[in-house]
Amino acid sequence: MRRTVVPGLVALGVAGGLFVLRRPLMMSAPRCLAGRWHGCFDTFNGVVLMTLVAVPLALLVAGALAYRRRAAGVGRGAAWRLSLAEVGMVYGTVPFLGLTLMPGGGAGVVPERVSLVPLRDLVTMGTLGIVGNLLVFAALGFFAPMRFAALASVPRVLALGAGCSVLVETAQYVLRLDRVSSVDDVLVNAVGAVLAGLASRRWWRTNPFGGRR
């Protein structure tokens, strides 16, 4: 029953999300299909559209990696788990990094801005901003412990999310992208990685080659 209901609910959720996003995504489609950077890869809608288009490619890469591991003697379950984890880390993180490092209107002109007071910017993020920050390193937090046994603990996932977020905020400051480098972004990004890691804990607590860690 669970094997039938859970995939069905996931499919309904994806279909519902696509229905809500259909109009903004279709607005970006002509520019993306034409290979134009402006209006496609430098907009939220365009990045989301290209991420969805790349789903078959991501699955194909995961399948190829799993096939190579199977040929090397790795069990079927472990081969697919490791391959999906590797592809998932990249596929689920790169688009959000692109959005996070997208230059603002005053990039290169507006002075660098830093906010080091915890929770001061959190109240101004809004629901969409908080959800977006939670998702930046969610894929990394979800898949990294499944792939690397050294990361299979909550404190290490927290450190991974926080460390990557600090690098992103530093890049925003150094490159003068007209964005605020905020400690609250680091906190929310790290929390998102931990929550995603907890969601996949049933898999990363198990040694992918069999047995318990």
Please explain how this structure is put together.
The protein is mainly α and 213 residues long. It has helices spanning 2-33, 37-41, 44-53, 55-71, 76-100, 122-136, 138-147, 154-174, 183-199, 201-204; strands at residues 113-115, 180-182. 73% of the residues lie in helices and 3% in strands. It has a two-stranded parallel ribbon with strand order 1-2. α1 crosses α3 (44-53), α4 runs antiparallel to α5 and α7 (138-147) packs across α8. The chain is globular. Residues 207-213 have low confidence and may be disordered.
Summarize the structure.
This protein has helices spanning 2-33, 37-41, 44-53, 55-71, 76-100, 122-136, 138-147, 154-174, 183-199, 201-204; strands at residues 113-115, 180-182. It has 213 residues and is an all-alpha fold.
How would you characterize the largest beta sheet? 2 strands, parallel
**Percent helix:** over 70%
Number of helices: 10
Shape: globular
What's the total count of β strands? 2
Helix-strand pattern = HHHHHEHHHEHH
The neighbouring-strand order within the major sheet is 1-2
- Low-confidence blocks of residues: 207-213
Q: Please state roughly what percent of the residues sit in beta strands, choosing from under 5%, 5-15%, 15-25%, 25-35%, 35-45% or over 45%.
A: under 5%
